[in-house]
Amino acid sequence: MNKTSPLRRFGLPIGLGILTLIVWEGCVQALNVSPFLLPGPVAIYHALVDDWGLLSEALLVTLQITGLAFVCAVLGGGLIAVLFSLSRSVETTLFPYAVIMQVTPVVAIAPLLIIWIDNVRLALLACAWLVAFFPILSNTTVGLNSSDHNLRDMFRLYGATTRQTLFRLRMPSAMPYFLTGVRISGGLSLTGAVVAEFVAGTSGQGSGLAYRILEASYQLQTPRMFAALLLISLTGVLIFLATSFISQRILGRWHESAMEREK
Amino acid sequence: MSETTTAVEATVRLRGISKTFSNGTTAVSKLNLDLEPGSFVSLLGPSGCGKSTVLRMIAGLIDPSEGEVTGSREAGRIGFVFQEPTLMPWGSALANIRLPLDLAGVKPAEANARARDALAQVGLEGFADAYPRELSGGMRMRVSLARALTTEPDILLLDEPFAALDEITRFKLNNDLLALWQAKRFTAVFVTHSVFESVYLSQRVVVMAARPGRVSDDLAIETDLARGEEFRTSADYAQLCRRASEALERAMAS
After folding, report:
1. Residue-wise pLDDT tens digits, B24-63
2. Dihedral sign of CA atoms B67, B71, B72, B73 in order
3. Domains contained in chain B, number
4. What is the least distance, in Å, from the CA of A175 to any CA of chain B?
């Protein structure tokens, strides 16, 4: 990987962002575009400040659901993968169903879940979890089965127990795969939460940022829609940075993906 | 771990062993071999002659389809060095060397001390905390060798351990291995396809032929010279190499 200086790495994208905002605002003002159609950055900023009470409350709900779904996905996906790895027949029996759950779009299941589960937040959590857990499950399952064959022989030669092999060989081997799953699942938790909020919102059960977007669109409060969208994006970015950071810390010195090459 | 700690013990005996894999390939057919305690034996042969399979059967990693292996399978007695260093990338050099001890439930303090000893034996004192990724190919192989030695094995099995290394590093590791063997006198079984390496290291070279894998020749490597650079450049060595080469050619022609 080419090492770019921090100034370029952060300066260039931020510069582009600022430039875009200026051009955007300039166009909106010069062409006199109606804020219902496309509000400028200044109008969006005002909406964010004015509606902060409403939006922050919604943000909190979305964050809670995303966070909980993510934690449940990491624990659930990881544990199920370990269970799969310990028994071939369990894996063969259950894996197809995990795939079915994954390939069925959450938008299609969400209305059912919302009918079945009285508590709206719990229903949202279930939807988000459903989307987020699979990448962790499938990645970790592959990882647990991909430890080096000679190392496995080595463990066998020294009489390692199943438990020792699991904790000392298979789990560490699976770590890079697991962490890739975690990174994907972080983003998907948010997606799952937002999609579920939309579905719940259309049936009149409101909460979370996606519901605020829906509500604002009915009221033609376009600046508020943008403000809510901005908060969702920022949440996504934050999740990405956090999971990347954790992954980098854990893989540290041993895995290729985390090494910096000197030139 | 076995109570007996003397290196010289029962002979390893392979009696009429055959190995046919599930895909129908017969890797080894009706092979007999006795390995004297404390001897250094090389298995020399072209690729596909089943020499690695024989080594794995001695280690008990695979079972023969026919025949039996005796005298080698007591737990803790065997050390194995693979063709690749086969280190855990997530563990430091010390953690890798400590692995067999950790698996056997040796207390951490003692395991650390013994692993440090083994690390010193292969000349890597300063590298206890280095990760495999940070070591050169030769150093990784040394770590692998140290790991095999931590359990003080009676039998050390080596599967073309230095094949992937450059010649300079390989010569150096050959000498180190000889020094370790002379100090500890474990039974060494060294698989190689290099005539020069096998003659240089061993007291006996077992030449194997392929399809199916079998013993084709059994050469005693006798010399009055001490093993070392002097031997490597001697007329004795050249003559023994020629004999081994001829035996290998016969094995490949048969």
Report:
1. 888 899 999 999 888 999 999 988 888 999 999 999 899 9
2. positive
3. 1
4. 10
Cβ within 8 Å, pair B104-A254: no
Burial of A240 (0-12, 13-18, 19+ CB in 10 A): middle
Tens digit of pLDDT for each residue in A118-177? 888 898 999 999 899 999 999 999 999 999 999 999 999 888 999 999 999 999 999 999
Of B56, B86, B90, which has the smallest distance from its Cβ to A254's Cβ? Answer: B90
Q: What CATH number is given to the structural domain containing B54?
A: 3.40.50.300
CA of A250 vs chain B CAs: smallest distance (Å): 10
In-domain check, residue A263? no
Phi, then psi, of B158 in degrees rounded to 5 = -125, 120
Same domain for A131 and A180? yes
Note the helical H segments in A104-220: 106-116, 120-144, 149-157, 162-165, 171-202, 208-218
Say if A152 is an interface residue toward chain B (CB within 8 Å). Answer: no
Q: For chain A, how long is the longest CA-to-CA vector?
A: 77
Q: Does B190 reside within a domain?
A: yes
Interchain CB distance below 8 Å, A159 and B104: yes
CA A260 from chain centre, in angstroms, equals 26
- With CB atoms and an 8 Å threshold, state whether A254 touches B100: no
Q: Which residues of A touch B82 (CB under 8 A)?
A: 150, 153-154
* Residues A26-45: tens digit of each pLDDT: 999 999 989 889 999 999 99
| Residue A55 contacts residue A227 (beta carbons within 8 Å) | yes
For residue B190, what are the contacts with CB-CB under 8 A and spacing of at least 6?
B40, B41, B42, B43, B158, B161, B197, B198, B201, B202
The reply to whether B38 falls in a domain is yes
* A160 to B103: CB separation less than 8 angstroms, yes or no: yes
